[in-house]
């Protein structure tokens, strides 16, 4: 049974952490109860239109005190052995008009590939009703029921970033030929995928600081340590040679003498160290707090541990090679916190495996002045060029510009083999279509307001001699 509640304050100054909760005054308010909630986000254009992903394959839209199923993709999702299921979602920038939603999930065979493979697909509403329309982007072989990773984020550069676990095989994280134990960069235009960072065990949750764009990764450890990493392109975080700041006791012989690993900025043990220090069994990576309504935590990284349930925060270093400081309990706890989430206004949420989803709020009337750089950073337009064969010598070129909004009605230009070929105004959904005859190998590229798409190389029927 799914229930959505009005925001009612919870008692934050619980006995075990009264000093911290009363001092910080941040608290949690319930958003609603869901069936195995796994991630929370919102419409990029409307922070009050929440989207809650449920593990079995539903995406629930929450608006005010009502909730409806926005998308049901259970037919493609394999759930729920081990850690399998819908992993996370990322609304497209033009979600308000297109309804396009990217999803990462472990798949059934009907999704293509083997059972349990990790899929990243785009889904959009079906005008005829029924199951949403699916556009496969990429599939990653994954045979285990554990260590999927699964965080999906749409970044300012227009690319999707996906975390993958090591499939329960630590060596995969150090294998440059494997897509497992990595952060991957995916082009939403064609699904092309590249390794962005490596050496991770199970980076279940990472986030992008909405102010700076910095990636912060919570990587689940093995026997000893849980860690927080700053994302750096090309970095190798050391698993399965290292675990946190220490050498992994079960490291293979190939790790001997290896150097060049990027250390975490923070780690904590599985055993309780005492004195209020962090401990647990599985880190749930969170977000840098950028909600002006929570000045008590503004600029601090909020995270939790699935087994302990404490919400804690720390100050990240200015450099990926530095160390975090000021780790502390916030006097708040959630049973089995499986994921944090952030809406498009920067408000933070935490989902419990048992069903409740909460929003983090500050003390009444408290606020912090926005920093010089606006929280709503203007994104450069993303130009996507697709080509579909419609005849022996004919293709349809489709140009899409994201985000849409005020870009609708402006002109896009298409070059053919390096020369201006055609131009057309974007539709109200920021799409322009061209029907083109092609003979032999031809290169196309689309342009919009100084931004350009990837080159599309097309080879159809060659002219007869």
Can you characterise this structure?
The chain has 465 residues and is mainly beta. Helix content is 3%, strand content 44%. It has helices spanning 18-24, 95-98, 171-174, and strands spanning 3-4, 27-33, 37-43, 46-54, 58-63, 66-72, 86-91, 101-106, 118-124, 133-140, 149-154, 160-164, 182-186, 193-197, 205-208, 215-219, 225-230, 242-243, 246-247, 266-269, 283-288, 301-305, 310-315, 325-333, 337-342, 348-352, 356-361, 382-389, 394-402, 411-416, 419-425, 431-437, 441-448, 451-452, 456-459. The protein has a 5-stranded antiparallel beta sheet, with no helix packed on it. Strands 30, 31, 33, 34 and 35 form a 5-stranded antiparallel beta sheet that branches. It has a 4-stranded antiparallel beta sheet with strand order 3-4-5-6, with no helix packed on it. Strand 16 and strand 17 (225-230) form a beta hairpin. The longest helix has 7 residues, at 18-24. The N and C termini lie far apart (69 Å).
The tally of strands reads 35
Portion in beta strands: 35-45%
Shape: globular
The helix tally amounts to 3
- How far is the N terminus from the C terminus? 69 Å
How are the strands ordered across the major sheet? 1-2-27-26-25
Radius of gyration: 23 Å
Helix content: under 10%
Kindly name the structural category.
Answer: mainly beta
Biggest sheet character: 5 strands, antiparallel
- Global mean pLDDT: 90
**Segments where pLDDT lies below 50 for 5+ residues?**
1-23, 372-378
């Amino acid at each position: 049974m799914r229930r959505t509640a009005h925001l009612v304050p919870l008692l934050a100054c619980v006995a075990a952490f009264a000093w911290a909760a009363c001092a910080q005054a941040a608290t949690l308010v319930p958003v609603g109860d869901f069936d195995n909630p796994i991630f929370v986000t919102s419409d990029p254009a409307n922070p009050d239109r929440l989207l809650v992903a449920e593990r079995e394959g539903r995406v629930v839209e929450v608006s005010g005190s009502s909730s409806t199923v926005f998308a049901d993709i259970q037919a493609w999702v394999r759930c729920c052995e081990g850690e399998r299921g819908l992993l996370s979602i990322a609304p497209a920038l033009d979600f308000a008009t297109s309804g396009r939603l990217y999803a990462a999930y472990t798949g059934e065979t009907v999704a293509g590939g083997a059972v349990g493979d990790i899929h990243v697909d785009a889904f959009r509403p079906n005008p005829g009703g029924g199951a949403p329309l699916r556009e496969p982007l990429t599939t990653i072989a994954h045979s285990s029921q554990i260590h999927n990773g699964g965080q999906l984020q749409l970044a300012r550069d227009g690319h999707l970033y996906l975390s993958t676990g090591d499939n329960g095989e630590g060596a995969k994280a150090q294998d440059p030929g494997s897509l497992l134990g990595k952060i991957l960069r995916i082009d939403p235009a064609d699904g092309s995928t590249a390794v962005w960072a490596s050496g991770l065990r199970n980076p279940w949750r990472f986030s992008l600081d909405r102010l700076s764009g910095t990636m912060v990764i919570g990587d689940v450890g093995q026997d000893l340590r849980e860690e927080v990493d700053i994302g750096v392109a090309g970095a190798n975080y050391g698993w399965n040679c290292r675990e946190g700041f220490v050498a992994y006791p079960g490291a293979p012989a190939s790790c001997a003498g290896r150097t060049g690993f990027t250390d975490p900025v923070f780690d904590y043990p599985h055993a309780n160290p005492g004195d209020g220090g962090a401990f647990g069994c599985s880190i749930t990576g969170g977000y840098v707090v950028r909600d002006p309504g929570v000045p008590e935590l503004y600029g601090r990284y909020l995270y939790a541990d699935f087994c302990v349930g404490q919400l804690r925060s720390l100050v990240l270093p200015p450099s990926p090679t530095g160390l975090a400081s000021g780790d502390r309990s916030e006097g708040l706890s959630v049973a089995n916190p499986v994921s944090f989430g952030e809406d498009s206004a920067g408000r933070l949420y935490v989902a419990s495996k048992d069903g409740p989803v909460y929003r983090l709020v500050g003390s009444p009337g408290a606020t912090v002045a926005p920093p010089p750089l606006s929280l709503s950073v203007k994104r450069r337009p993303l130009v996507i060029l697709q080509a579909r064969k419609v005849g022996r010598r004919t293709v349809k070129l489709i140009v899409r510009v994201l985000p849409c909004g005020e870009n609708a009605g402006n002109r896009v230009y298409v070059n053919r083999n390096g020369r201006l070929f055609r131009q057309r105004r974007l539709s109200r959904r920021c799409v322009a279509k061209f029907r083109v005859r092609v003979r032999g190998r031809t290169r196309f590229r689309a342009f919009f307001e100084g931004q350009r798409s990837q080159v599309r190389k097309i080879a159809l029927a060659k002219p007869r001699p």
